[in-house]
Amino acid sequence: MPSRLRRIDLIVFVSVLTTGVGLVMVDVHPEAVATLAVGVAGLYSAWAGVGRQTDESPRQGNER
User: Is the dihedral of CA 23, 29, 25, 9 positive or negative?
Assistant: First the structure.
């Protein structure tokens, strides 16, 4: 499963990079492209669950 996730990450990266280059080539301001890239990265990280804790993480508290 990790290799599948890495493949999806690569596809998303190449897609965003291609979109950014295409927008710059059609004379969109680079600042607008950077803003779009930050927004897309935030949406992707929310969708991918970056920073979520898994159920396998050790619980805190009094365990015996």
Answer: negative
pLDDT in tens, 10-42: 888 888 888 888 888 999 888 898 888 888 888
Q: Tokens 């890239």 belong to which residue?
A: 37
For residue 30, the enclosing domain spans 15-43
| Domain-located, residue 37 | yes
**C-alpha to C-alpha distance for 41 and 43, rounded to whole angstroms:** 5
49: in domain = no
Lookup result for tokens 């710059």 = 24
What letter does residue 55 receive in the DSSP assignment?
A: T
- State how many domains the chain has: 1
47-60 residues labelled b (16+ CB within 10 A) or e (exposed): eeeeeeeeeeeeee
